[in-house]
Amino acid sequence: MIEHRATGQGGAADPAVPTRVRLTGVETLSPGTTGASWRAVRLVPERLVAPGGRITVERERLPRSRAQAMAAARAAVLDRPEVLLHVSACPSATALRVETRAVDPDACRRQAPTGLRDRAPRPPCGPPELRARWLASAMVGRLRAAGHRVELSDTAGSCEGNAALYAALKAAQDRDGDGRAPLIGLVHVPPPQVMAPDVASEVLTDLLVELSDQARRARCAEAGWSRLSVGRGRRALRVGLTGGIGAGKSTVARLLRARGAHVVDADAIAREVLAPGAPALAAVAEAFGPRVMAADGALDRAALAEIVFSDPSSRARLEALTLPRVAEAAAERMERHGRARVAVYDVPLLTEGAMADLFDCVVVVEAPLKARLSRLAGRGTARTQALERMANQASDAQRRAVADVVVSNGSSPADLVDAVDRLWEHLTGG
């Protein structure tokens, strides 16, 4: 059996309503001149037409004063755009950098080399660190697949634009619960001699299209519509496939692959990310010590699992080291789908990672607890361990809340095949 959301029509959540984007650049040179960020920003058109719908771009040049830039960033959030993207210059960059976080600027010991700075000390204005309100790693993967020179950045307080980003994220945090907050992030553009302003502007434009379509999908989902309401043009349909442990998600992925879908497996990428010689493995070994390493230098996955599944803080530390790398690789592979009409990301933590609006359709696989425990027992997982792992995942209700389609896997294998046949018809239009 499958259940799916209807496609809505009309109203403020209609994907045909233009997405409002606020795009800022930072002035970094002497008075009367502008830096690389503003050169790229001013080349982005004020009106964009994308497969998902129209986009209106409001461009703003931030002042040099850190205090004034932070005030402008807070005001931008209160103006309620759907996407707020800050752009700053980075003299050392060789590619466009997509930032993951901001730190309290008053806690930064190092100042940016030029631009936004005030000498007068002020009290801290909030938490020491705030995460960007978008999945930066997924954006990097998609932009790379489109042929752009981009990379993930985690420089936080040492970079220009940090203060404006922090102020915007803090204003959005304060507004949580008062309507949907915008997608907020920061990118750093290289010097013009490294990346010409028109090239940087092209990357920014493609990023804005991705973020705007994500905002539209969020708009539709909140109104109870399917994310499939948002157009995608000629690219493959992006499907996020998830479900609790033992629900049968991998079986559904295998059946979709047999029908022609291009399937990307998050667990397989996670194994690659922690393969011998991979940078993430060294970081995990440093974080958790020799107890998680086998004698041959490979990861002792059983030892690591024993630690992280019983300790939320350890699990969070592991995810911080691995999930961005997994998301980046997965997003890039999703776009390299060949001739497949449907690209599926088989990912267990879709709900927990707030990934739903990255996809044109979110498919959740469900099964009764008894069936899930029975399947896990057949794989050698003890009941207590299985229940503990389930408790560390999103609940069925939480997954249903983000689903466009729910596939029930509570009866026979033949019934599941029939359900996937109907799902395939739903995804491909018959």
UniProtKB/TrEMBL annotation:
PROSITE patterns named in the record: DPCK
Catalyzed reactions: 3'-dephospho-CoA + ATP = ADP + CoA + H(+)
Enzyme class: transferase
A GO term from the CC aspect: cytoplasm
A Gene Ontology BP annotation from the UniProt entry: proteolysis
SUPFAM superfamilies per UniProt: P-loop containing nucleoside triphosphate hydrolases, Pyrrolidone carboxyl peptidase (pyroglutamate aminopeptidase)
E.C. number: 2.7.1.24
Positions bound to ATP: 246-251
Pathway involvement of the protein, from the record: Cofactor biosynthesis; coenzyme A biosynthesis; CoA from (R)-pantothenate: step 5/5
Domain of life: Bacteria
CDD domains the UniProt entry points to: DPCK
Keywords from the UniProt entry: ATP-binding, Coenzyme A biosynthesis, Cytoplasm, Hydrolase, Kinase, Nucleotide-binding, Protease, Thiol protease, Transferase
Compartments reported by the entry: Cytoplasm
PANTHER family cross-referenced by the UniProt entry: BIFUNCTIONAL COENZYME A SYNTHASE-RELATED, DEPHOSPHO-COA KINASE-RELATED
UniProt family annotation: Belongs to the CoaE family. Belongs to the peptidase C15 family.
Annotated function: Catalyzes the phosphorylation of the 3'-hydroxyl group of dephosphocoenzyme A to form coenzyme A.
Name the record gives this protein: Dephospho-CoA kinase
Organism: Actinomyces howellii
Recorded name of the encoding gene: coaE
